[in-house]
Amino acid sequence: MPPRISPAELASTRRKLRSQTARVETELRVRLSAEFARIIRREVLRAVQLKGISKIRKAITSEDEDSIWKLIEDANIQVFTEARRDFTSGFRIGVVRRDTKRDTMLAAKEVKIREFLYEARIDLADRVRHVISTASETATIDETARRLFTSLRDHGTFSRARAEVIARTETAQAENFGIVTGLSDSGFEMLEWISIRDDRVRPDHEAMHGVRAKIGEPFTLPDGTELEFPAHFDGPPEHVINCRCTVAPVVE
User: 179-191, pLDDT tens digit by residue?
Assistant: First the structure.
């Protein structure tokens, strides 16, 4: 039987976890922005030196992909581990057992992250090509470089806004997977969907507030989408990106 826990204990654990997750999310966003800026600077220099796009074979090298993936992977592992620990040992179950669930999580996410990097490569090349091709005949190298950097920094895949979306979505997925894993380890069987319930929440997610599902079985959203937990990695973008919903154990 799972432990009897009070709503106050649950709320305290959630507050602690949210503070930890927010810290990791901020760190990931800053590090992603810095990594994106490094790639942009390199591509701007390359494009200006070549005075065109025709000789640029790749916008992102495999080294860049590995670097971005490592940032995301490290953040996911930290958030998952903290969430699982808090929702296991936090309910006096004892030592957290070692398992491979975090590796399962990363494997499930890797395909979509690789897809993002492929799209980023195309986006970066297209933006560099556009700025170079539309530069006036009298534009200096410095002017062209500034225009390139501004375009790449402020818009598209490598913008600061995109780094924030990635950080928020990634940490939400890792946190919720860690919570579900910890609750399962603790002997709970049922989950309850918790919506933020503010003026920015999706209508479908607002409607899900309080809906229950068995751990390992999907929640069914009003549009028919099935998710094992909010922001699940296999979910469609319209239900995953920037999702702030979470789950709680049913403690009746």
Answer: 999 888 888 899 9
